[in-house]
């Protein structure tokens, strides 16, 4: 059995959530392992003939509510739940739904393999109540429902959603091939735009050359006309200077 599988099985079958912050109950950090193991009041649990767990079986759940105790920068799961609810309420789509936050607080449902730990929903409910009580506004009821199917809950939820009559109108499926085809179409559009710009530039250059040629032709014609006029004027001037001599 892979170590990660053994750890998962042990967590789901033998670990448990203490109903209140464990540090307040013990009088010291539950992650001070030397003190924890030396205690004589451990509620031992025989998970197998070879393995008996004491206080340490409450530590996995304790990390969920106080991750900073083991050096993690994440906030506790109770804060994450409340932030998610507030994000939904702040969404403009639900702005017209009065009392939505209170309704959601009464319908928190656990899912996933970790939710199989006994009393986890009770601990989360207590933590949420304490957190909501520190905020402004009317007190709200908090209800956390335990997981029924454990790590299969998300699958069952997705299957129910996929079975609705309107789901096909909203789904979005992208396979690697579809993504590749869309990228090819986008590249083709870019190439077409580039060819269009190039043709436009060539057309503008051609028009400029035609205008330049017309201008040169008009200039030559004007010069020829002026030259003819000058020649006629010179002839007339020569005729006026001629003198008639008597015979």
Automatic annotation (TrEMBL):
<protein>
    <submittedName>
        <fullName>Uncharacterized protein</fullName>
    </submittedName>
</protein>
<dbReference type="InterPro" id="IPR004000">
    <property type="entry name" value="Actin"/>
</dbReference>
<feature type="region of interest" description="Disordered">
    <location>
        <begin position="178"/>
        <end position="247"/>
    </location>
</feature>
<dbReference type="InterPro" id="IPR018181">
    <property type="entry name" value="Heat_shock_70_CS"/>
</dbReference>
<dbReference type="InterPro" id="IPR043129">
    <property type="entry name" value="ATPase_NBD"/>
</dbReference>
<feature type="compositionally biased region" description="Acidic residues">
    <location>
        <begin position="186"/>
        <end position="239"/>
    </location>
</feature>
<dbReference type="Pfam" id="PF00022">
    <property type="entry name" value="Actin"/>
</dbReference>
